[in-house]
């Protein structure tokens, strides 16, 4: 099946709260070079670091999965069998969410070209309320990691999630999903809350109308009880006139929430799709220059799965790492912790930039775009040179070249970040624009008041047709949940 549409995954972008994650998939028929693109935005607070996991052989090994009693929906960890062989993969790891144990991953890409990204997909309240206490099973990060470690195709990734959920259960915080792509297709998997081992999957598209005989369709998969459970609960009448619609049956129930056009964000899923499709043929540069999938005050750096390592400045540090404030450093990390941390440096850029976004944001982003454009200008010769080396029997030299280039750009990016911090710091202080804190608690209490952002003129948590531009944006008070 040839997919020629853009999918900005709606199911996962219209959470009923102000903090959410969105997935972006662009099929090969709409990209400039015929590749597929997958990206994700998210708003986790904790420490983030880049990591490459080597392929490994495992002999009679187990892996610990699930959540603890400290999770937002308490559970118990369990051990399951690890695969005898796991693939090499690249992942952006992070340290904390809803009480889940570190390290966590939202996904990445493996050596087979399989990319996976998890995204929140909230279920209806009465289904969430059925979740056992304690709950057991693989949670969203476990499932993403299993796909990265074991899947050869997108479809195989879906099957792995289904098999794991059926055998071990699914531990959750209200429902989640995974977007799994390979070079030819993409699948969306929705794992349901409630402890009933419910899940549904569809090849590229919004999980809405769903065939009750889905086992006979190559475009749909799901748990064997996905239809019967809805009937048992009275959420769908098989003798009625309405088709079996996964979204209507299992999603959060509220007026105005639909799979593609609903939601509580400034741009709906449909608006994002239309804006992206208008750029076709789409390049990575096109997406980076749009606000929705890109970092506000940090540059994109090129990384290949074949690079031989990650610079320590981009690896694990204690900044925002869970329990860092109440524990001492393990001596094994003494040297790495002594380095600058890219995550901290560019967070400083963010704080200064967002103190006066109308003045600083255009300047900062112009600098970042200039840096990124220089990287884009190099990519063809770097990849062509590495390919030539590999084709002539010099595979290690090819990997050395890719590693050297990625590390060099990462080093220059960090130097650029430090320069921007120093410049913004000097300007803010010398012009008398640096206010000292008034004495309020340094941590946000989580009551819905505005946190640091670079948004000017619009409320991101209100659809465009429900607001008028403001001279200076201040977020409305409301509950903030991921």
Descriptive report:
The structure is a single chain. The chain has 482 residues and is of the alpha+beta class. It folds into 2 domains: 6-277, no CATH class; 295-430, no CATH class. It has 11 helices and 15 strands. It has an 8-stranded antiparallel β-sheet with strand order 4-9-10-11-12-13-14-15, covered by helices on one side. Keywords: Signal. This is Dipeptidase domain-containing protein. Belongs to the peptidase C69 family. Secernin subfamily. GO terms for molecular function: cysteine-type exopeptidase activity; dipeptidase activity. Residues 1-20 form the signal peptide.
**Morphology call:** globular
Structural class: alpha+beta
Tally of separate helices: 11
Please state how the strands of the largest beta sheet are arranged side by side: 4-9-10-11-12-13-14-15
Helix content: 25-40%
| Tally of strands | 15
Order of helix and strand elements from N to C terminus: EEEEEEEEEEEHHHEEEEHHHHHHHH
Instruction: Provide the residue-averaged pLDDT.
Output: 88
Could you give a short account of the major beta sheet? 8 strands, antiparallel
Describe what is shown at a glance.
This protein has eleven helices and 15 strands.
Topology of helices and strands:
Elements: E1 6-8, E2 22-26, E3 37-41, E4 48-53, E5 56-57, E6 62-65, E7 78-81, E8 85-86, E9 89-94, E10 104-110, E11 115-120, H1 125-128, H2 140-150, H3 154-168, E12 176-181, E13 186-191, E14 199-203, E15 220-222, H4 228-232, H5 246-250, H6 269-277, H7 284-289, H8 334-338, H9 342-355, H10 357-391, H11 395-430
Antiparallel strand pairs: 1-2, 2-3, 4-9, 5-8, 6-7, 9-10, 10-11, 11-12, 12-13, 13-14, 14-15
Signal peptide: 1-20
Protein name: Dipeptidase domain-containing protein
GO molecular function, one term: dipeptidase activity
């Amino acid at each position: 099946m040839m997919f020629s549409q853009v999918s900005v995954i709606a199911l996962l972008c219209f959470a009923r709260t102000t903090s959410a994650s969105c997935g972006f998939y662009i099929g090969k028929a709409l990209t400039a070079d015929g590749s597929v693109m997958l990206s994700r935005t998210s708003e986790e607070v904790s420490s983030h670091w880049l990591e490459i996991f080597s392929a490994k052989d495992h002999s009679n090994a187990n892996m610990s999965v699930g959540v603890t009693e400290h999770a937002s929906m308490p559970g118990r960890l369990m051990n399951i069998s690890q695969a005898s062989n796991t693939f090499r993969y690249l992942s952006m790891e992070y340290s904390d969410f809803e009480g889940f144990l570190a390290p966590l991953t939202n996904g990445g890409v493996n050596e087979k070209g399989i990319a996976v990204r998890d995204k929140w997909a909230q279920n209806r309240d009465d289904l969430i309320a059925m979740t056992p206490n304690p709950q057991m099973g693989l949670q969203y990060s476990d499932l993403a990691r299993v796909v990265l470690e074991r899947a050869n195709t997108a479809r195989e990734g879906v099957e792995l999630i289904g098999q794991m959920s059926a055998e071990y259960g699914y531990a959750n915080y209200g429902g989640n999903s995974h977007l799994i792509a390979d070079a030819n297709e993409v699948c969306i998997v929705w794992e349901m809350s409630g402890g009933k081992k419910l899940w549904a999957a569809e090849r590229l598209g919004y999980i809405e109308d769903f065939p009750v005989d889905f086992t006979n369709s190559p475009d749909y998969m799901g748990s064997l009880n996905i239809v019967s459970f809805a009937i048992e609960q009275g959420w769908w009448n098989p003798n009625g006139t309405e088709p079996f619609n996964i979204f209507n049956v299992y999603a959060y129930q509220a007026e105005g929430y639909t799979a593609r056009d609903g939601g509580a964000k400034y741009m709906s899923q449909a608006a994002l799709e239309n804006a992206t499709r208008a750029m076709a043929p789409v390049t990575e540069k096109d997406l980076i220059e749009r606000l929705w999938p890109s970092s506000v005050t940090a540059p994109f750096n090129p990384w290949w799965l074949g690079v031989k390592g990650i610079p320590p400045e981009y690896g694990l540090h204690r900044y925002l790492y869970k329990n860092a404030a109440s524990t001492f450093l393990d001596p094994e990390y003494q040297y790495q912790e002594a380095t600058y941390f890219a995550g901290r440096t560019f967070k400083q850029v963010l704080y200064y930039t967002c103190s006066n976004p109308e003045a600083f944001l255009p300047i900062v982003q112009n600098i970042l775009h200039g840096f990124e454009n220089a990287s884009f200008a190099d990519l063809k010769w770097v990849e062509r040179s590495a390919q030539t080396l590999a084709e002539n029997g010099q595979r290690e030299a090819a990997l050395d070249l890719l590693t050297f280039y990625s590390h060099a750009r990462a080093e220059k990016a960090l130097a650029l970040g430090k320069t921007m911090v120093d410049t913004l710091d000097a300007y803010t202080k010398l012009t008398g624009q640096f206010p000292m804190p008034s004495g309020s608690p340094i941590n946000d209490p989580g009551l819905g008041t505005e946190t640091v952002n670079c948004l000017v003129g619009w409320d991101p948590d209100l659809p465009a047709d429900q607001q008028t531009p403001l001279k200076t944006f201040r977020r409305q008070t409301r509950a903030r949940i991921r």
